Amino acid sequence: MSPLSLVPIPSSVHETGGAPLVLDERTRPTGDADAARELTRLIEARTGLRTRELGGDGGAPATAASAIDLRVEPGGAAESYRLRVAEDGATVVGADAAGLFYGVQTLAQLIEPDTEGWVIPAVEIEDAPRFAYRGVMLDVARHFFDVPAVRGYIDRAAGLKFNALHLHLTDDQGWRLHLDSRPALTERASGSSVGGDPGGFYTKDEYRDLVAYAAARHMIVVPEIDMPGHTHAVGLAYPELAEDPVVTEHMLEIVSDYGGEPPAAGEAYDGLAVGFSSLRINDEATYDFVADVFGELASLTPGPYLHLGGDECLGTDPADFAAFVARASAIVADLGKTPVTWHEAGAAGGLHPDTVGQYWGGVTPTDGMDDTARAFVSRGAQVILSPADAVYLDMKPRADSDLGLTWANGPTSVRRAYEWEPADVIDGIGEADILGVEAPLWTETVRTPADIDALAFPRIAAAAEAAWSPATGASDQRTWESFRGRVAGLAGLWDGLGIRFDAADEIDWVR
Q1: Which CATH code fits 133-475?
Q2: Is 187 annotated in the active site?
Q3: pLDDT above 90 for 59
């Protein structure tokens, strides 16, 4: 018997051995209208079947064999659901709307062809997430992606039970969100991208559209305005706020390896080197800028988190860096939002104690990165784990891949993306200290939605399992061999949804 194609693997799966539910044109999801609409979309993508009228009690009654009941019954854990499939019908019950949505995703993954046509095997599932925060990050600063492209990525991530989209909105190469308080940012600093490609930006209405689209799929948006480094673009718009670039020998080596020109004050930057830019830390005008930017961003963002970056500030004096992130995190907290920073900011003694740290070091920490990550926990906050050599989706999947980079310990295979355990990464940071897992996709080499798919899939599914499913060792299905068998069966669903995934030869794909 082939494994059920369930990713991320649910908390509890029991195949009852009964006859499957046969799907046909009579199949009619009933109950919650939003969930019924989503299931109908997924059934058609997977099978080509056009099912009956959606939701409610209107229309002709469905036969018992084709009924799929979808409903919310409060009382369970947040985002949890129960699912039952038998020959006479199926039921998905969510503890809340998000849980029902995730149960629908699981039900769609179960659809498989057989001699009857299309069936769903008889099964009973109870499921709930391991971590509250399950994120993906899309860098729209190195290369810009329009609203339809980001919507597509939201759909793909939500289908794997991710509930947060971290948008990296600014970097040395461009500023991607219009703000009324600082209009020169998009007027003067949004037109460039890596390699001289066109830039772009979101209007406030477009950003609101993305927030609403994500919310309809039970995802929050976590916007990032990276500072005090990664701010060369700010200097194009407001030169009085930015220091001149600090060009080191290491940076010149990167320029030599990847092309382009070294950064120059007042000129758009389209290279790959990092760490050369900084805001003017000791100028009060800088903090007026921070307050304007995050104040307007907070008004646009209903989610609880604002990300202020804080990584790779190689051109900033450490004492100045510490002073900056302390003040900037307090500004964000005073807006009623929880600050998020990359783990480097953990070294700052005055960092706001509620600040969440995002760890991007390796699965085996080096260079004191574990110390700075533990500092967040010592203040009573939590961390998000994004180990670069496991869940950075922009790493090459193979050495000969056209897309991606290799700086995070070489290419990252699907197996390496899967075989890590969040609670084992940093000594002293256990289950309760981890807010969740996030899989970033930086876009230095990524230009199109097809490029996004090719780098993200199937490794994004491995990250989804680390974020949602029971811990390694807590389930006999939380193994590489189990995962590679289960993800293989998702090829048909992904094809139907138009996902142009990398058919990695580590997986024996079932199409």
Answers
A1: 3.20.20.80
A2: no
A3: no
